[in-house]
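Example noted here:
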Amino acid sequence: MGWCTLIITKHSKVSFAAGQVLVKTVSDTYQIPLSDINILLIESTQAVLTSFVVQKLIKNDVRIIFCDENYLPVGEIAGYYSHNKRVRNLEQQVNWSQERKEQLWQQLITLKMLGQQQVLAELGLDKDDALTPHILQVLVGDSSNREAVVARLYFTRLFGKGFSRRDDSNLINAHLNYGYQIILAATAREIQAAGYLTEFGIHHQSYENALNLASDIMEPLRPVIDRVTWQFIKRAELDFSPERRLELVDVLNFNVRFKGHETLVTGVISEILRDSLQFLNYQGDELPTLPEWKLEI
């Protein structure tokens, strides 16, 4: 499995030869080993991909993501066959118990809220400790919707009282949405590689969302993107430039502490997914144990 994200930002032809992905621009030709690539991100509307390179990327479980003229991801290509036990896995997936899904969602959303609390504390923006009472009140399935309450408290402290996540014209949201999509795509790739459908989530159940399960699993990593976006503002670099987008993509390679050890953000995604699947698929006589997660971002 690859480790790097290849980003196409200008007029290019992308092809394949002798185990290498070739990117030919007007002035240069670049060679990248196919085995190194995790995600191919097409930002330019003037990029051309050969069918041969697309086939090779798909067979190597590389996620191919296409962006619109505003550089926001709008779609992707994923392969049909990425796991030899896919049919068995899908049978398990459609039979996951509602009780376990709601228990797992409680864990995931609590981990995200703790991450949001970490960000505010690190930046000195939560002197009244407003999030803690709500984090402690998260019920199974988050039936009291503490996630929404915490989100309102969190984002207004992080980005100001006038900030709204629904404002598509806000540059802050452009950076957040781009970063979230990068993590979403990396999560979807892990799910696909594990032999499960991204469409069937544990909490997200939208008929219009083909990445419901990825949307669930990625939740604890959102605060990493939030903090990077805040740093752009602090540095007066909130410009959605190619440099800023590269920094957001590089979040996948950030070092964090998870379950007491150092790992990359991509490693956290893999571990959360693995622990979640073990919990959901457990077939023993005794009750399964919920994953115990601690994430320091």
User: Anything to note?
Assistant: The chain has a mean pLDDT of 92. The domain at 4-77 is CATH 3.100.10.20 (Ribosomal Protein L15; Chain: K; domain 2). Residues 238 and 244 are 8 Å apart (CA to CA).
